[in-house]
Each structure stands twice: as structure tokens, then as C-alpha cells.
Write a structure and sequence with these properties.
The structure holds two protein chains of two kinds. By secondary structure, chain A is an alpha/beta fold. In chain A, 33% of the residues lie in helices and 16% in strands. Chain A contains 16 helices and 19 strands. In chain A, α2 crosses α5. The longest helix of chain A has 17 residues. Chain A starts with a helix and ends in an 11-residue tail after the last helix. In chain B, 31% of the residues lie in helices and 17% in strands. Chain B contains seven helices and seven strands. A seven-stranded mixed sheet of chain B has the order 4-3-2-1-5-6-7. Classes of the chains: A alpha/beta, B alpha/beta. Bound molecules: iron/sulfur cluster.
């Protein structure tokens, strides 16, 4: 029978299937960070259990780490405690850890792919919802809760109910200046923050196929913002070329065998999805959010919507509440919205290509007066690469702050936060109330829009800088 | 994990849709490394408003939360479940839950019950008119009962059995260690390893 990619990967990992029970699924790669793991390790200790497969587990410090003065102890005692707890747990249980200062330290979803650990056809989990990022390789990758983290540590498996499948097809070719971030914001605006509920989304079509590996990760990363459990993209030459030569990629003849297998993963001709959505690339332009969930977005050319224009009463109420929180008036052109802060980084857009794209826009330009720009690489390796290419210097010469790796202002668990009432253009993935600091207001944007916005001080695209 | 069979208690109306986990428990509370004591973080931002429902004395001691659609969206933090439980909630009723939140809640012993939105609206009105109204959530019969409401709900047999028995997932899985080992012996030779 014709199968979708998600079904193939699932079936390949079923350890045990019994009537009336969830399938027991084998997990190939378990990523661990300091926020969602302490209680899981605590649980293991209390029950006298060990980590079944430390060799399929890897940890990094990301959510709490400061992005300045790495040599000083972490000032916030609670952040310090979480980081120290992770270090102790990893050492007690034999788990590989990339601590602050290490070249492979960084946001957990940047680290897996950069080491070549994220591979097509594997199952990947992490106690973090943006684990969907890894689906860009054709992996089945999903976020789990802390008790599931404990379950995977103890058994390397998870009891799982099957997902439904949704195809999101983006036909045609994107215009220059339109990025994968715009694709996913447009998708979420179309299907809503609950539209992907219960589904694994497979992104397909010409516009998706022509994306680079890192751009694909941006799309899959935000699948969760559409409510989906995971996002996937069929592995192809772009995928294989990206993996080849990375430190944990298969080597030599193994790589050829792996590629043969990876090629078999794509959804079969005639396989049926439970739901299908089609977009055309020419409908997609630089996209920005105006509200407090990622589905509340419009093209940058548009304006703040009038809540009265929403037919659904709860959408209308949500829009009113969002405009109030965001301090925006219906009808204001998005281009007139002025920001205090620009944040370039996160597991959505903190990779080398994102930094390159933004640096290209900023080269020879200055961050506008009164605007602060934080550039936070997704990992220390990304930082090193960027420095070698001279990108760090571009950001610094423009007047941006060029920081160390971490989650940073994506969620403001470290000192990088918005003050109450401050407004940001952010390349991260969530514009929830208070996400970047209490009372902070977030507009989600692509790296290109972030860079242009930093230069002009109001939401802008690179095209606005041309004249 | 405590067993759950039939629970009767007073209920709190939370008239808000799309309540994400950042609202249920703001990120700053995730810094802790313990497993208990999260009740002070529950809806911490909203609680700063005096008229927020959690601050209203007539709803103190509620054990059932009646929430709007799309409850628990956003980050996968299980602390959201712990915060609700530590505060004293045993059940959340809504017409739609975010998947990860729902999974977390059912594994942790917080019963999340899907009801039609009309029933949720009816329950909201009922407990707003009379905050002392008790709601019964019967997992044995898979039924919610309250004045004017007798509504069955769906929950798969397996999850229901686990909740009824108060069984923890890991203990269940470890009974199948042989099958796991057998699966491992058949994995691809080039499957990635971290060490
Ligand atoms: S960068 Fe943001 S979204 Fe990504 S893992 Fe860190 S906090 Fe989560």
C-alpha cells in the first residue's frame, strides 16, 4: 500500500504493537537541555533507574545561558542551578554534554543538525516543542514533556498514538526577498494556530524543494505554531549534501548505503494524506505578525487588521485583546510600526544562512538611532563560522550587539529581555504576551526583515532600503 | 500517580480561548529543578489583576477548571500540568486542547476532558450563577454530570485504564525490555551515535 513518509518512519520504529495500546516507538536520538530534564533525572534517581542508551543521548545548555561574559558565573541563582543540575546529571548518568563555552554548545535544535546527528528516517525527541525543526531532514521529530523525557531516558522508547498526516504544498517559486520564514508565517496565518492539531505536516511542492536545508529547518521549526506535532520534508540531494562529512554522519560506504535508504523514505505516489492545503508561492511576500499568536500575521505591505473584520467571535475577541496588548490601532500600515529592539537569533533563524542574509542587508549600514539590535548565533560553531566570514564584524560595525550562543531573547530566561512596553522585531517563533519579557511586544519577522527593520527603525524589508 | 475514578468538586470558569502554556505558567518559573510547589506560578501574570477568576474568593478550592477552546497551546512545558495540579485542579474541561498539553496532562494524572463548546458555555453560566455548584467527572462511566448536564466524553480505553489504576508509563514499558533489546539488534549499522 502507498504510504506517506511519516507512516514509513513510524512503522520502521515500532518495537511493539498490541491491541488497545499505543505503539511502542523506538527513539534514535534524544536531545536534552537544562530546562525540561532536571525532574526527569530526579525521577530516574528516585526509582533507581539508569539511562538505557547514553550513546543515543546528547545534552547542551541553551535556555538559561547568558550571551555575554561567559567566564563569569551565571548571575541569576536559579539559572545557575539549572545549568549546574544538568552538568551533574550528565556526569552521573554518562550523557555527553556541550556546556557553555564549548564549540558545540548552542540551541539544542541547532546542535543536532550541525553535528550530523539529525538524519533522515530517524526518530528524534527533545523536551522542547521546536524539536519539529529536525523534520526538515525527513526525520520524525517531536517535542515531549518531562515525564516522557524520563521515559525515553529509562527505556529509549515512547508509547505513542499514531498521528494523522497533512500535506502542505507550496507551488511555484518564491520571489527574491521572500524567505522560508515568510512561507511558514503565511501557512500559519492560513490554517490558524490550531489548524495542524493532531497532524504531522509534510511540506512539499516546488517552493519547498528549492529551499536550502537551513531554510527548511525554519519551516519545520514553526510547525508547532500551527498546532502540529511535527513537520517533515522529504530528504533529497540538498539533504544528503548537507549531512555529508559532518562529524556524526555515516562515513564511506555506510554513507552510500544510508543515502540508498534515505531515498526510499519519500511519500509514495498515490499515498493519501488526511488533509491537504495548497499555497502558491506568488501569494507569499514578507510577512510580519501584528498580534500575540503566530497566526496573527499579515504581509508587510498590509496594515493592522480591524477586529470587526473577523467573522468568528472568538477570533474577534482575540484580535481586540491582542491589539490592546500590542498597543496598535487598526488600519496602521505595518511599515509605520516603530520598534525599540531587533532580535536576530533562535532555533528558527539563528543559523549561519540567517546571519549571512541579515549581514548582507546590514553591510555598510547602521542600526537606526534608538534601536538596539541583538545578534545571537544559534551555536558557538555558527558564531565561529560567522566570524571567519567577517559577519560578526559587519554586525558590530553596524552597531548591533554580537553575542554568544543561546536561546536568549527568544524567551528571555536569561538577562536578554524586553522591558515592559518595549517592542521588538524578532526572528524567533513566538509572539505570546510576555514571551520576550514582561509587557514586551513582539513582531515575528524573517532575518531579512529584521535587518532592514534595524536599519530603518520601523518594520521594513530590504527593498525599502534600496532607494 | 494517584488513581482517578470519580471526582466531584467545585469549578472555576476561565473564559479565555487560546490559553497558551506561557500564560498557564510563565517561563521564569521553569527555572526550578524540583517537581512540586508550582502553584504560585499558575497564571502568575493574570493573577496580578484583582478581578482575575483565580483571585475571586467564591472560586477558592475549585478542583475543576472550565477553559475555553485551544487550552494549553504553545510550549511543551509539563510544568503547566504540575502548576494546575499543585494548585489543586484534578480536571480541565475544554472543547479543544493542544496535543502536547493533553498528552502531558493524561500521563501526569490530570484528566483533560473534551466537551462540546455548548456544554462548556452552559457550565460557565452555571458556575458563574452559582459558584458553589459541584461538577462530577466520572472516568468509570466517562461522563460529566452537573445541573442540566449529563454528557459523555471520549477517552481511549488504554489511557482510561492507566488513570484508573494510577499506573506510571515507565513501569509498564520496562515489562517489555526483551522486545526493546530485540529491536535494537536490528537497527541500521550506521544509525547515528553520540558517544
Ligand atoms: S531558541 Fe527559543 S524556541 Fe528555540 S529552543 Fe530556545 S527558547 Fe525554544
Amino acid at each position: 500500500m502507498a504510504r506517506t513518509m511519516a507512516e514509513k518512519v513510524w512503522q520502521e520504529h515500532v518495537v511493539r504493537r498490541a491491541d488497545g495500546e499505543p505503539d511502542l516507538l523506538y527513539i534514535d536520538l534524544h536531545l536534552v537541555h537544562e530546562v525540561t530534564s532536571p525532574q526527569a533525572f530526579e525521577g530516574l534517581r528516585l526509582a533507581g533507574r539508569s539511562v538505557r542508551r547514553p550513546d543515543l543521548t546528547i545534552a547542551t545548555e541553551d535556555h538559561n545561558v547568558p550571551t555575554q561574559n561567559l567566564l563569569a558565573p551565571i548571575a541569576d541563582p536559579v539559572s545557575r542551578k539549572q545549568v549546574e543540575t544538568l552538568r551533574k546529571n550528565c556526569s552521573d548518568f554518562g550523557v555527553r554534554l556541550h556546556p557553555m563555552g564549548d564549540i558545540d554548545q548552542g540551541v539544542v535544535h541547532v546542535v543536532g543538525p550541525q553535528l550530523g546527528l539529525t538524519q533522515p528516517g530517524t526518530t528524534v525527541v527533545c523536551g522542547d516543542s521546536h524539536t519539529s525543526t529536525h523534520g526538515a531532514f525527513g526525520a520524525l521529530a517531536f517535542g515531549i514533556g518531562t515525564s516522557q523525557v524520563e521515559h525515553v531516558l529509562a527505556t529509549q522508547t515512547l508509547p505513542m498514538e499514531p498521528f494523522r498526516t497533512m500535506a502542505v504544498t507550496v507551488d511555484g517559486q518564491l520571489d527574491p526577498g521572500v524567505s522560508s520564514k515568510d512561507i511558514i508565517l503565511a501557512v500559519i496565518a492560513r490554517i490558524g494556530t490550531g489548524g495542524g492539531q493532531g497532524y504531522v505536516i509534510e511540506y512539499r511542492g516546488e517552493a519547498i524543494e528549492s529551499l536550502s536545508m537551513e531554510a527548511r529547518m525554519t519551516v519545520c521549526n514553526m510547525s508547532i505554531e500551527a498546532g502540529a506535532r511535527a513537520g517533515m520534508i522529504a530528504p533529497d540531494r540538498t539533504t544528503f549534501d548537507y549531512i555529508r562529512g559532518r562529524s556524526h554522519a555515516p562515513q564511506g560506504a555506510d554513507f552510500d548505503d544510508a543515502v540508498e535508504y534515505w531515498k526510499s523514505l519519500a511519500t509514495d505516489e498515490g499515498a493519501e494524506f488526511d488533509a491537504e492545503v495548497v499555497l502558491h508561492a506568488d501569494e507569499i511576500s514578507p510577512f510580519v505578525t501584528w498580534g500575540t499568536n503566530p497566526g496573527q500575521g499579515v504581509p508587510l505591505d498590509g496594515s493592522v487588521p480591524d477586529p470587526a473584520s473577523f467573522e468568528d467571535s472568538s477570533a474577534r475577541a482575540a484580535a481586540e485583546k491582542a491589539l490592546d496588548y500590542m498597543d496598535l490601532r487598526a488600519g496602521t500600515p505595518m511599515r509605520e510600526v516603530a520598534v525599540d529592539t531587533v532580535f536576530l537569533g533562535s532555533c528558527t533563524n539563528g543559523r549561519i544562512e540567517d546571519l549571512r542574509a541579515a549581514a548582507e542587508v546590514m553591510r555598510g549600514r547602521k542600526v537606526a538611532d534608538g534601536v538596539r539590535m541583538l545578534v545571537v548565533p544559534g551555536s558557538m560553531r555558527v558564531k565561529e563560522e560567522a566570524n571567519q566570514e567577517g559577519l560578526g564584524a559587519v554586525f558590530e560595525e553596524a552597531g548591533a550587539e554580537w553575542r554568544e550562543a543561546g536561546c536568549s531573547m527568544c524567551l528571555g530566561m536569561n538577562p536578554d529581555q524586553l522591558a515592559p512596553g518595549e517592542r521588538s522585531a524578532s526572528t524567533s517563533n513566538r509572539n505570546f504576551e510576555g514571551r520576550q519579557g514582561r509587557g514586551g511586544r513582539t513582531h515575528l519577522v524573517s532575518p531579512l526583515v529584521a535587518a532592514a527593520t534595524a536599519v530603518r527603525g520601523t518594520l521594513s524589508s530590504p527593498a525599502d532600503l534600496a532607494q | 500517580m494517584d488513581k482517578f475514578d470519580v471526582h466531584t468538586g467545585r469549578a472555576m470558569p476561565l473564559r479565555a480561548s487560546n490559553v497558551d502554556t506561557d500564560q498557564i505558567i510563565p517561563a521564569v518559573y521553569l527555572k526550578r529543578v524540583s517537581r512540586t510547589g508550582f502553584e504560585d506560578g499558575l497564571f502568575a501574570e493574570w493573577r496580578k489583576e484583582d478581578d482575575f477568576v483565580l483571585n475571586r474568593p467564591e472560586y477558592a478550592g475549585s478542583t475543576v477548571l472550565i477553559a475555553g477552546p485551544d487550552f494549553g497551546t504553545g510550549s511543551s512545558r509539563e510544568h503547566a500540568v504540575w502548576a494546575l495540579q499543585d494548585y489543586g485542579f484534578r480536571v480541565v474541561l475544554s472543547s479543544r486542547f493542544a496535543d502536547i498539553f493533553r498528552g502531558n496532562s493524561l500521563k501526569g494524572g490530570l484528566l483533560t476532558v473534551l466537551l462540546p463548546q455548548e456544554v462548556v458555555e452552559h457550565l460557565w453560566r452555571t458556575v458563574e450563577e452559582d459558584p458553589s455548584t459541584e461538577i462530577t467527572v466520572d472516568l468509570v462511566e466517562r461522563e460529566v454530570r452537573a445541573p442540566g448536564v449529563h454528557e459523555s466524553f471520549e477517552l481511549d480505553d488504554y489511557t482510561r485504564w492507566r488513570l484508573l489504576e494510577g499506573l506510571d508509563d515507565i513501569a509498564l514499558t520496562l515489562r517489555h525490555t526483551d522486545e526493546i533489546a530485540e529491536f535494537e539488534s536490528g537497527r541500521k549499522p550506521w544509525a547515528p551515535v553520540t558517544l
